[in-house]
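Second opinion, please. Please look over this fold, written as tokens:

===
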Amino acid sequence: MTETAFETGDERQHKIDRELRLGWQSRVLLTTVLVLSAFGLLARLSPVLTHASAEGLMVCAAFGLLVWLLHAATPLASLTGFMLTSCLYLSTVVQPNGGWFHTALLPGLALFVVAFLATRFRRGQKEQVGLAESRHGRGASQVAANMGVAALAALALPTALRPDLWINGRPPQPFGAAVLASIIAALAEAAADTVSSEIGQAIGGKPILITNGRRVPPGTDGAITLSGTAAGCIAAAVVVFAAIPTLQLDPREAGIAWVAANAGLFSDSLLGATLERRGWLNNDAVNFLSTAIAALIALALLR
């Protein structure tokens, strides 16, 4: 066994032990996101189920079923995805007859597509070194960590601005545009994080630790590669571009969402190299915080 292989195996076992010890963070995160999204959905569906709401819920349910059939997520994760995409839809659709295409649902679907393709890219190669995603698909806490911030931010939008006051399918300036950009930044960061990890591991090359530039084995928390980082930035751009026609983001808003997503991506690596490696946070907590950082940066730059 080479030194690199030994270090990789040792790092992998350390991560497994840490995730087991800090599993409570994933459970708290999942429970919090599910409870808040459930209350938000009930508020959006009351008192009358409109045509727009019914159409969106059917689309979200079909999407959740497809994700499960593709083995991209566990049953509970698919249900979690249904709830969070429903939050994105119901919070941005124009009632009572708005279509699903002009909502935050499409950027959410773009996140799934790029993440799904990245996890399948050279899957066999990643399985040989123990870096591939489980064949059962993503867990519910992973879905909550990646989409929770965007969904909860979307739920906050109509409480500040009623959808019937929106202009041409989007909330008036300046607060509404800032929240929309923060939602997209969070989704784009989640896409960038997943794609950068998957592509970086698949293409190979010796990663470096973001805090000191030292070369480390693949799969090390906080490690980055040039190929993975570039792929992540492209994935973030895909999600942002999906939001331009649907949510009518102008060039400045789209640019800020993309910059914020990339800032969140590097924050994810920094948190991984520090708090996660020290055993203070698990991967789900790091992912959730990095999407929150991306959203807050976008919100701050557009306020």
Summary: The mean pLDDT is 84. The CA atoms of residues 185 and 257 lie 5 Å apart. The chain is about 70% helix and 0% strand.
